Amino acid sequence: MLELRLVQGSLLKKVLEAIRELVTDANFDCSGTGFSLQAMDSSHVALVALLLRSEGFEHYRCDRNLSMGMNLNNVSKMLRCAGNDDIVTIKADDGSDTVTFMFESPSQWILSHSVFFLYNFGQDKIADFEMKLMDIDSEHLGIPEAEYHAIVRMPSSEFARICKDLSSIGDTVVISVTKEGVKFSTKGDIGTANIVCRQNSTVDKPEEATIIEMKEPVTLTFALRYMNSFTKATPLSSTVSLSLSSELPIVVEYKIAEMGYIRFYLAPKIEDEEEDVKPQA
Q: Which residue intervals define the domain Proliferating cell nuclear antigen PCNA C-terminal in the entry (predicted)?
C-alpha cells in the first residue's frame, strides 16, 4: 500500500513542469525513505534526478518498494485539475496497475475510495482521478560521488535570465569560473556576448548572493537548449548551484524547500564537436 499526502500540492505541479520537457515517460520509485525519479531525456544526453524525502510529506506510507511508470504529460494534465492551494494525495495498492490522485481544498478533510468523482460544497471540493500505470524498462544509473573543481551558488532567476539572453545570440554557453566570479559567454552569427557575475556574499538577502567555492579554475562548454530546459525548475527554489569539474557532467541543482532536490546532469561539449556528448554514469 502506498499513500502520500502533500499539503503544498502546487509543489508537485512545479516539479512536473520542471522535468516534463526533458522526459516523456519515467518510473517514480517509492521506498520508505522517499519518492524519487531518475531518467534520461529521449536523446540520452541529459539526466534528471528527483528526490522528495518522506519527512517532507504530511503523511507518508510505503509498505514496500514500488516503481510506478507514468507518462509525465498525462500526470501534468491531471495536476492542472488541482488548485494551487489544494492538498494532493497519491495512492496505489500493492500489485495494482493504476495510481489515484486525490485533490482536496484545504478546508475539506473527507477521505474517498471511489475511482472518479467530484464533490461540490460551495467553494469546497474533493476529486479523485485514476490513471493507468505503464511498464517502462529503464536502467537506474549509479551516480558516483565526485569532487568538483568549482561550485557556484547564485540566484536561480538570474541564472534563468542569463541562459535565456545568451540563447538569443548562440547555441552554446562557455562557463568560466575563477575566484573573482563566473563568466557566461556565447557567440553566434550576429556577434558575441559575455555576462560576468562577481562573487558577492555580503548582500542583505542570502538568496541574492553569488558564492563561489573553487579548488581550481574551470572552463567548460554546454548546449544552451538544455540549460534553458533546466531553468524550468526556477519556481522551485530561489537559488541554484552549478557544480563543475573538467571532463565531468555539470550538475545543476535546485533545492526543494527542506524536502529534497532536482538535479540535472549534462556532459560538456568538446571543442569543434558536432554532436552532444552523453553523460558518463
A: 142-269
What three-state secondary structure class fits 165? helix
Q: How many CB atoms lie within 10 A of CB 219?
A: 15
* Pairing outcome for strands 218-223 and 2-6: unpaired
Pick the closest to residue 160 from 264, 36, 20 (CA basis). Answer: 264
pLDDT in tens, 81-100: 888 889 999 999 888 899 99
The three cell numbers of residue 177 are 569560473
What is the helix (H) or strand (E) element at residue 251, kind and residue range? strand 250-256
Dist CA 73 CA 87 (whole Å): 20
All 3 cell numbers of residue 23? 522526459
C-alpha angle with apex 206: 85 to 261, nearest 5 degrees?
50
Report d(CA 15, CA 206) in Å as an integer.
23
Closest CA to 257 of 18, 34, 52: 52
Strands (E), 105-156: 117-121, 124-132, 150-155
CB atoms within 10 A of CB 216: 10
Question: How are beta strands 34-40 and 250-256 bridged, if at all?
Answer: unpaired
Residue 274, C-beta contacts closer than 8 angstroms, at least 6 positions apart = none
Interacting residues of 168 by C-beta distance below 8 A, sequence separation 6+:
none
Q: Are the CB atoms for 254 and 19 separated by under 8 Å? A: no
For the beta sheet containing 117-121, the strands, ordered from the edge strand earlier in sequence to the opposite edge, are 59-62, 2-6, 87-92, 98-104, 124-132, 117-121
List the alpha helices (DSSP H) in the chain: 10-19, 72-79, 156-167, 224-230
pTM, whole model, 2 decimals?
Answer: 0.87
Q: Which grid cell is 234?
A: 526556477
